[in-house]
Amino acid sequence: MSIQYIILAIFTQIRSIFLTMKHMFAKRETRLYPDHSVYLSPRYRGRIVLTKNPDGKERCVACNLCSVVCPVSCISLQKSQNKFGRWFPLFFRINFSRCIFCGLCEEACPTAAIQLIPDFELSDFNRKDLVYKKNDLSILGTGKYHNYNFYEKTGVYNQIDTSTKNSAHSIPVNIKDLLP
Amino acid sequence: MMHVNFIHVLSLFCKTFMIVFLIIFCSAFLSFVERRVLGLFQNRFGPNRVGWFGSLQLIADMIKMLFKEDWVPLFSRKFIFIIAPVIAFITSLLVIATIPFDKNFYIINLNIGILFFLIMSAVSVYSILFAGWSSNNKYALLGAVRAIAQTLSYEVFLGFSLMGVIARANSFNLICIVNSQKYIWNIIPQFFGFLTFIIAGLALCHRHPFDQPESEQELADGYHIEYSGMKFGMFFIGQYISLIVVSAIITVMFLGGWNGPFFSGYVWFFLKTVFFIMFFILLRASLPRPRYDKILYFGWIICLPITLLNLIFTAFFILLI
Ligand code: SF4
Ligand code: SF4
């Protein structure tokens, strides 16, 4: 340990003390969360909702894809059928005390029914209150995809959705074309 | 004659009680102030939820501490385990008695005032030793061993750094020492003594960056790992009391105590003490904790020679004049 080293070491200490003191006048970085709400980007994966079609009908077709893809298996639902043959979930439950908000269910859903929205204020006092039923999950709007209607894209013919013309049906398939 | 005596005793008692209560309250409140000031230095808010700007945080902490389970481990040496925080609390509180806050405002005028401070700081080692050993816990024991090695090696020049001041004042009496600084504060002629005393004082009250005994990251919580509830609170508040004591001693020894223009003595004393407390908090915010062996090395190789040189030069100049 040379003298030069010691003096240099002492001066770096004094410098760091001085730099810390300068922070007295700097702006505080903390966000006072409950007082000032935070901005979360639309892609933030928070609370899960079940959305409706633009025409106000239920989007979910109870295909179980979300339940299958969920890594922690916190989605449970049961398929049911209405008199037109359209599938819908009889019950739909998400256990939010297990959900890790990975967003895989949203990726898997073909109808864009299940969506994660930027809302993280989910805390509750009882664990059983964190099991959200279909009523708690459903919202009236379309969520993030305002114009998406699954039955317009699919080739499936469905009695209840005859009002909306299936885009896949309206264009005749050219069987000789190689283009997708 | 009896009547006068009684009133005199009563007023003395009231004064003593007031000072002790004030110090305990201040040191408890310091735990809140420190968090706020640390927040200021680190660009965040400290506790600011309870009361006006978090001013009631102290009461919340107190309630929490009182209602925690005060557990004495079954595997511990019970008597020593319980006596340790009491020693930690009392030793630094006793030093308050000798500190003169103003010309006439002190509890006792001891002729060996500064020696008493050194004695008590030496006794405070026992609290750590007892706590670490009686907890019967490896981490606690390691923390205690570290703390004692550190305190012992820093106590050597804790005393030496004050010797220059004592030589200048020609007395161990704290009031005489303050009076000897009428014209020039000791911080100028005794600058190196001042520096080393700050370092040793920091090490004495286990403040950052000398918080080896607690070092949460390596030793969980050092010597008070098994303590909970009010017994932990005593260690906690005892640390803040010793912080106040060290700041007050620095004020008395190096900054001319109550001396100062315009204001009365109390105000100056208070301002100087608070300045040092804030400085210690600033040190805590800015300096990392050095490695254990480096601390001992620094103490023995750098600080001790500096204090000895300081003492020699002071003696030389005193003989010269
Ligand atoms: S976000 Fe992930 S964990 Fe949560 S329900 Fe969807 S797939 Fe399951
Ligand atoms: S939410 Fe989507 S993926 Fe899940 S069952 Fe309904 S349609 Fe299928």
TrEMBL record, chain A:
The note on the cofactor says: Binds 2 [4Fe-4S] clusters per subunit.
Q: Mind listing the GO molecular function terms for this protein?
A: 4 iron, 4 sulfur cluster binding; iron ion binding; NADH dehydrogenase (quinone) (non-electrogenic) activity; quinone binding
Query: Has the keyword Mitochondrion been applied to this entry?
Result: no
| UniProt keywords, alphabetically | 4Fe-4S, Cell membrane, Iron, Iron-sulfur, Membrane, Metal-binding, NAD, Oxidoreductase, Quinone, Repeat, Translocase, Ubiquinone
Q: Which residues bind [4Fe-4S] cluster 2?
A: C70, C99, C102, C105
The top EC class is translocase
* Matches recorded under Gene3D superfamilies: 3.30.70.3270
Which EC number applies? 7.1.1.-
NCBIfam families attached to this UniProt entry: NuoI (TIGR01971), PRK05888.1-1 (NF004536)
Q: Outline the subunit composition.
A: NDH-1 is composed of 13 different subunits. Subunits NuoA, H, J, K, L, M, N constitute the membrane sector of the complex.
Q: Which family does it belong to?
A: Belongs to the complex I 23 kDa subunit family.
Function noted in UniProt: NDH-1 shuttles electrons from NADH, via FMN and iron-sulfur (Fe-S) centers, to quinones in the respiratory chain. The immediate electron acceptor for the enzyme in this species is believed to be ubiquinone. Couples the redox reaction to proton translocation (for every two electrons transferred, four hydrogen ions are translocated across the cytoplasmic membrane), and thus conserves the redox energy in a proton gradient.
Protein name per its UniProtKB record: NADH-quinone oxidoreductase subunit I
The protein's organism comes out as: Buchnera aphidicola
Which gene carries the instructions for this protein?
nuoI
Automatic annotation (TrEMBL), chain B:
Name of the protein this chain belongs to: NADH-quinone oxidoreductase subunit H
Q: Where found, per UniProt?
A: Cell membrane; Membrane
Can you tell me where the transmembrane regions are?
12-30, 79-99, 105-131, 183-205, 232-256, 262-283, 295-320
MF terms in GO? NADH dehydrogenase activity; oxidoreductase activity, acting on NAD(P)H, quinone or similar compound as acceptor; quinone binding
Q: Name one Pfam family in it.
A: NADHdh
**Gene this chain is encoded by:** nuoH
Under catalytic activity, the entry for this protein gives: a quinone + NADH + 5 H(+)(in) = a quinol + NAD(+) + 4 H(+)(out)
A GO cellular component annotated for this chain's UniProt record is: plasma membrane
Entry's HAMAP family?
Answer: NDH1_NuoH
Keywords attached to this Swiss-Prot or TrEMBL record, sorted alphabetically, are:
Cell membrane, Membrane, NAD, Oxidoreductase, Quinone, Translocase, Transmembrane, Transmembrane helix, Ubiquinone
Relate the assembly described in the record: NDH-1 is composed of 13 different subunits. Subunits NuoA, H, J, K, L, M, N constitute the membrane sector of the complex.
Q: Which family does it belong to?
A: Belongs to the complex I subunit 1 family.
Functional description taken from the UniProt entry: NDH-1 shuttles electrons from NADH, via FMN and iron-sulfur (Fe-S) centers, to quinones in the respiratory chain. The immediate electron acceptor for the enzyme in this species is believed to be ubiquinone. Couples the redox reaction to proton translocation (for every two electrons transferred, four hydrogen ions are translocated across the cytoplasmic membrane), and thus conserves the redox energy in a proton gradient. This subunit may bind ubiquinone.
The Gene Ontology biological process terms listed for this entry are:
aerobic respiration
Note the topology in the membrane: Multi-pass membrane protein
Give a yes or no for keyword Transmembrane helix in this entry: yes
